[in-house]
Amino acid sequence: MYLALEDDFSRIQKRLSRMFGMESTPNFHFATKSKALNEGLEKQLTHFVKEHPDTKLIMIDTLQKVREINGDRYNYSNDYDIVMKLKQFSEKHNICMLIVHHTRKLQSEDCFDMISGTNGLLGAADGAFILQKTKRIDNKGILDIVGRDQQDQKIYLEFDREKCLWKFIKMETELCKEPLDPIVKMVGEMVIKNKSDWIGTASELAALLPKEISPNALTRRLNVNTERLLEEFNIYYETNRNRTGRQIKLTLIKK
Known about the structure:
Blueprint: E1 2-4, H1 9-20, E2 30-31, H2 41-51, E3 57-61, H3 76-93, E4 96-100, H4 120-124, E5 127-133, E6 140-147, E7 153-160, E8 165-171, H5 182-194, E9 198-200, H6 202-208, H7 215-224, H8 226-233, E10 235-242, E11 245-252
Parallel strand pairs: 1-2, 1-3, 3-4
Antiparallel strand pairs: 5-6, 6-7, 7-8, 9-11, 10-11
C-alpha cells in the first residue's frame, strides 16, 4: 500500500507507466488521501490489512501529512511518539512501514542531522535512509543507510530520467557477511535433503531439528533470516494463518 499524500492519481499512473510499463497492478494499492494518526489512520490501515492479509509493505509519503500537530511542532517526545505508533502497528501486523520525510536545507557533517524535526524520529525508527544529490541539477546521488539490525552503508546511485528509477553504481565498502544462524542452516539442510516443500507449524518444525529450540524462537530466527534462506538454500519462507493457527511454508525453488 502506497499512501501518496502529496500526489494525485494521474501523476501516480504516469509514474507507474514510465517505471514499469503499466498503469496498475493487482498487487499494488495506493491512495492520495488518508486521516491523520490522531484522526483514525491506524483504523484505516487495520481495515486495509484485514482486507489484504498478504500485505508486506506500507509506504506513507509523507510523514507530515499524517502527523499529529500539538503545541510544539518539533518536540522530541511528539516526534518519538508518532514514529513509535507506526512501528508498533508494523510489528503487530508483521509488515514493513516505509515513512518518507523531508530533510532540512542546512548542511551537516552527519547527513542524518538533516532530518527535519528532532532526533526523536530516528530514535524510534529501526533504521533510516538519506538520499541526496551530489548537485541539485545532477543525476548522481548518494544513499546513506543506518539501522539497528544492519551495517551502516553508503551507496552511489544514478537517476534514470526516462524510467524515473535510481540505478545502483557502487557501494563505498563491501558489507561483512555475518555467519549463518546454525538453526537456519539446519532448516535449510533439512529441506534440501528431503528435496520437497515443507508445510506445518513452528512446533512441528522445531521437533524435526537436531537442536532443541522453542517454536517462538524458531519463528523469530526464520523471520530475521528470510533472505539468507533464499540466498543460501534457494528456499522461500512464508507464514500464514488458517483456522488451526499460524503455519510455516518452506518452498524449495527449482533452479
